[in-house]
């Protein structure tokens, strides 16, 4: 199991084996002194565990370190549970995440919240306040993030986001509780979001929720942004569903698994909440693949020049031509001459545009709806978003690229105490403002 234990946990074993030295003096003083030593050691250990070097330009760095340390310890506990054979590490991790913050459907005077299912797929629906002057509402189908394996429409973070959207946009928000890895793998997550969205778009269902059929959009963050982009492309190619979506809004989306050495992957390989090897493992898990490939994928051995299957696709994510020099800086492309062709033979899904919407044909891109893409500077996925914006723009799609210099991956859901970040609030406001003006 590569990547486990992570560097930080491995570090603990170096620190632990030095017991405090016995000291002279009267017993009570000695006890006090040894508790002092123990306390100092614990504080040092905690500080060592929590501290990670972060660029000063990131929003609220100390808070981010604490959030990262919390998430890291949950990951390590889950890896231990996996190692002991008690449960799959992703099931254990999701159990921890969901038990921390699951919320039951609770309606306020402003927003009505209901749990139901759309064609067998669970959804949580948020309905903004009725307004006599505006009988038909706008609507967003929302797909939460979490590496296709974690989180839920029902955890506090997503419940709060969708409540705020329903209230501020006076809209109906459908938040999809799609099935996760390891219960299902690619492309089942896509099937779930497509099935629920198709059901919702039926005239009688839209009517039931008082939704304007001309003002429905899709949106999602991280892996949810990946699923939203895949859904947008699929609807676009289905004549019955074409032009049914007015906008797509993608929040730091995951869009490709061919190049793990874009400038943002190189720059942020150790940045919380999503270090590079963690992202690569989410990909491998999504395809139920073998972790033995992770290290080779990190150096792009899966798309080396001798891997014929990848050759036509590489040009579609050629960042030396897609990204501006202000982004590429001095980073060099990592293009291996010889790699490992077994990887894409065993995991052909890596080269499938349904998993990597960035590599779709130009003809698929050109009819996509008006698009919003939010990117963060301190995020391995920054360049996935910027390259997609560029490809869409070249295909004639109207695109807004909203970049946050102090943003980190996942920041938009962190808006309330104790995990409130200034950039969390600013990204959310900017996103909702764009929807208000364009949906
Ligand atoms: C990448 O592939 C090359 C050529 O097969 C091999 O020598 C190298 O060890 C591989 N690197 C990793 C990290 O797997
Ligand atoms: C990427 O684009 C650059 C500049 O346009 C070009 O020189 C290079 O050959 C391209 N690489 C690939 C793999 O298409
Ligand atoms: C987070 O919330 C607390 C309590 O409301 C507030 O004092 C603090 O300034 C907030 N921090 C940020 C970064 O918004």
Automatic annotation (TrEMBL):
Occurrences of domain Alpha/beta hydrolase fold-3 (ranges): 140-292, 351-412
Classification via Pfam families: Abhydrolase_3 (PF07859)
Enzyme class at the top of the EC tree: hydrolase
GO molecular function: acetylalkylglycerol acetylhydrolase activity; phosphate ion binding; serine hydrolase activity
Any single GO BP term: lipid catabolic process
Keywords: Cell membrane, Endoplasmic reticulum, Glycoprotein, Hydrolase, Lipid degradation, Lipid metabolism, Membrane, Microsome, Signal-anchor, Transmembrane, Transmembrane helix
Cross-referenced PROSITE patterns: LIPASE_GDXG_SER
Coiled-coil regions listed in the entry: none
Cell compartments where the protein resides: Cell membrane; Microsome
Bilayer topology annotation: Single-pass type II membrane protein
InterPro entries given in the database record: AB_hydrolase_3, AB_hydrolase_fold, Arylacetamide_deacetylase, GDXG_lipolytic_enzyme, Lipase_GDXG_put_SER_AS
Active site: 222, 379, 409
Transmembrane segments: 36-54, 80-100
A Gene Ontology cellular-component term: plasma membrane
EC numbers on record: 3.1.1.71
Catalysed reactions listed for this entry: a cholesterol ester + H2O = cholesterol + a fatty acid + H(+); a 1-O-alkyl-2-acetyl-sn-glycerol + H2O = a 1-O-alkyl-sn-glycerol + acetate + H(+); cholesteryl (9Z-octadecenoate) + H2O = cholesterol + (9Z)-octadecenoate + H(+); 1-O-hexadecyl-2-acetyl-sn-glycerol + H2O = 1-O-hexadecyl-sn-glycerol + acetate + H(+)
PANTHER family recorded: AB HYDROLASE SUPERFAMILY PROTEIN C4A8.06C, NEUTRAL CHOLESTEROL ESTER HYDROLASE 1
Family the UniProt entry places it in: Belongs to the 'GDXG' lipolytic enzyme family.
Name of the protein described by the UniProt record: Neutral cholesterol ester hydrolase 1
């Amino acid at each position: 199991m590569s990547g486990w234990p992570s560097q930080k946990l491995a570090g603990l074993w170096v620190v632990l084996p030095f017991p405090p030295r016995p000291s002279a003096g009267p017993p009570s003083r000695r006890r006090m002194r040894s508790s002092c030593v123990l306390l100092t050691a614990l504080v040092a250990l905690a500080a060592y565990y929590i501290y990670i070097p972060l660029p000063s330009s990131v929003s609220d760095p100390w808070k981010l370190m604490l959030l990262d340390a919390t998430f890291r310890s949950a990951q390590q506990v889950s890896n231990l549970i996996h190692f002991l054979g008690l449960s799959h590490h992703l099931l254990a991790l999701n159990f921890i995440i969901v038990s921390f913050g699951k919320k039951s459907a609770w309606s306020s005077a402003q927003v009505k919240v209901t749990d139901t299912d759309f064609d067998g797929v669970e959804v949580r629906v948020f309905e903004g306040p009725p307004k006599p002057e505006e009988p038909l509402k706008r609507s967003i189908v929302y797909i939460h993030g979490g590496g296709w394996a974690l989180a839920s429409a029902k955890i506090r973070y997503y419940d709060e986001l969708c409540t705020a959207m329903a209230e501020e946009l006076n809209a109906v928000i459908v938040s999809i509780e799609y099935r996760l890895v390891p219960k299902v793998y690619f492309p089942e997550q896509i099937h779930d979001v497509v099935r629920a969205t198709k059901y919702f778009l039926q005239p009688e269902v839209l009517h039931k929720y008082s939704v304007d059929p001309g003002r429905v959009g899709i949106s999602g963050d991280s892996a949810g942004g990946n699923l939203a982009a895949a859904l947008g492309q699929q609807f676009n190619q289905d004549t019955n569903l074409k032009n049914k979506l007015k906008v797509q809004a993608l929040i730091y989306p995951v869009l490709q698994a061919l190049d793990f050495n874009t400038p943002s992957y190189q720059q942020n390989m150790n940045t919380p909440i999503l270090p590079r090897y963690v992202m690569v493992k989410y990909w491998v898990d999504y395809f139920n693949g073998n972790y033995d490939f992770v290290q080779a994928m990190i150096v792009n051995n899966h798309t080396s020049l001798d891997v014929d299957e990848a050759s036509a696709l590489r040009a579609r994510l050629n960042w030396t031509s897609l990204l501006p020099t202000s982004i590429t800086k001095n980073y060099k492309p990592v293009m291996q001459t010889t790699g490992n062709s077994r990887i894409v033979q065993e995991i052909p899904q890596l080269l499938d545009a349904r998993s990597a919407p960035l590599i779709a044909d130009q003809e698929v891109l050109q009819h996509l709806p008006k698009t919003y893409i939010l990117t963060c500077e301190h995020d391995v996925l920054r360049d996935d978003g910027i390259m997609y914006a560029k490809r869409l723009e070249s295909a004639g799609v109207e695109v807004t690229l909203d970049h946050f210099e102090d943003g980190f991956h996942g920041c938009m859901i962190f808006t309330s105490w104790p995990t409130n970040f200034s950039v969390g609030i600013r990204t959310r406001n900017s996103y909702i403002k764009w929807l208000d003006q364009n949906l």
